[in-house]
């Protein structure tokens, strides 16, 4: 194996590459992806040793307070990708292409992808959907931008394709999905996210494709998993999907801390002398040296 380039080697860690993810699949190593939207979240993800971070357009629902992902703009994605990048310099970052930026003209797609890479600092972009999207994947890949495809439940188009429901349940849906998965790979995608797909359909896709298939609500047998940060730590206030496993209860932890702070300010318990600066004229300590 060639030694890592300077840009890949920072600190003690070697940043993964698209080729590395493919190798991981060949060696049957599961791939771990998690979303992040800000520097502390990215730091935590990097410290946990995830393989890659997704700056998802779920940003709209988890952090920006929207009901859907379709209000999220390219400017939003750039802003948050920059923050994630500052928190996780050694981790491969994929950023979601916002609603409709992979539709219409190729110029529109190119402009959006270029700004996510150049201004945001993303290492790759993710695009939802099939059909004309495959041409966009080919164009970006040929131009040098790694693309992750996203099939199955594609939240940006739930308004026209049947809402939040599992895909690949009928023979017809299953065949369509597998055909699309193969097309995404052929178009040059380095990775595929399958969302809300039956386990056997996702397993078959992972078997058919050489690129890693990352599942969310796609069962046990994909090459890796992705979950939303706020779902994992228990800080999402919306409806919890069946595929979520919540590993902590950050919401009640945070609420408890803020409640205690509020009570202590009101009752005068906070601040006490240990939070208080002493004047220079009292080197021995205005409060008798007590800290
Ligand atoms: N916090 C959060 N987590 C996510 O996983 C997520 C977002 N936000 N925002 C963008 C999309 C939207 N996603 C969703 C949201 C809801 C369902 C959902 O309600 N699914 C049903 C399936 C019902 C069925 O057909 O059986 C479920 O009960 O899980 C699925 C994916 C996934 N993404
Ligand atoms: C749920 C994942 C795959 C996503 O696209 C997002 O977080 O926006
Ligand atoms: Mg998304």
From TrEMBL:
Keywords attached to this Swiss-Prot or TrEMBL record, sorted alphabetically, are:
Cytoplasm, Magnesium, Metal-binding, Pantothenate biosynthesis, Transferase
Q: In the UniProt record, which is one GO cellular component term?
A: cytoplasm
The catalytic residues are 195
* SUPFAM superfamilies given in the database record: Phosphoenolpyruvate/pyruvate domain
State the pathway, as annotated in the record: Cofactor biosynthesis; (R)-pantothenate biosynthesis; (R)-pantoate from 3-methyl-2-oxobutanoate: step 1/2
The reaction(s) annotated as catalysed by this protein in its Swiss-Prot or TrEMBL entry are:
(6R)-5,10-methylene-5,6,7,8-tetrahydrofolate + 3-methyl-2-oxobutanoate + H2O = 2-dehydropantoate + (6S)-5,6,7,8-tetrahydrofolate
Explain the purpose of this protein.
Catalyzes the reversible reaction in which hydroxymethyl group from 5,10-methylenetetrahydrofolate is transferred onto alpha-ketoisovalerate to form ketopantoate.
- Assembly, per entry: Homodecamer; pentamer of dimers.
Official protein name in the record: 3-methyl-2-oxobutanoate hydroxymethyltransferase
Organism annotation: Alkalicoccus luteus
């Amino acid at each position: 194996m060639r030694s890592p380039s300077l840009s890949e080697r920072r600190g003690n860690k070697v940043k993964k590459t698209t080729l590395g993810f493919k190798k991981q699949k060949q060696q049957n190593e599961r791939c771990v992806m998690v979303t992040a939207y800000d520097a502390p979240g990215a730091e935590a993800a990097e410290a946990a040793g995830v393989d890659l971070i997704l700056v998802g357009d779920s940003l709209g629902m988890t952090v920006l307070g929207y009901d859907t992902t379709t209000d999220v703009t390219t400017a939003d994605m750039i802003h948050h990708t920059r923050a994630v990048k500052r928190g996780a310099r050694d981790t491969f970052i994929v950023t979601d292409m916002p609603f409709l930026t992979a539709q219409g003209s190729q110029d529109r797609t190119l402009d959006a992808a270029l700004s996510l890479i150049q201004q945001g600092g993303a290492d790759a972009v993710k695009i939802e959907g099939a059909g004309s999207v495959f041409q966009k994947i080919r164009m970006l890949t040929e131009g040098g931008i790694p693309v992750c495809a996203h099939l199955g439940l594609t939240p940006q188009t739930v308004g026209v394709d049947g809402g939040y429901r599992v895909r690949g349940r009928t023979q017809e849906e299953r065949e369509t999905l597998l055909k699309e998965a193969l097309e995404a790979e052929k178009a040059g995608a380095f990775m595929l996210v399958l969302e809300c797909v039956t386990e056997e359909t996702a397993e078959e896709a992972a078997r058919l494709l050489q690129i890693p298939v990352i599942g969310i609500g796609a069962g046990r047998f994909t090459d890796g998993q992705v979950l939303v940060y706020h779902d994992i730590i228990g800080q999402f206030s919306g409806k919890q999907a069946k595929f979520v496993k919540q590993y902590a209860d950050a919401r009640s932890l945070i609420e408890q801390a803020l409640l205690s702070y509020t009570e202590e300010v009101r009752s005068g318990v906070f601040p006490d002398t240990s939070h208080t600066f002493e004047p220079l004229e009292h080197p021995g300590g205005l409060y008798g040296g007590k800290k």
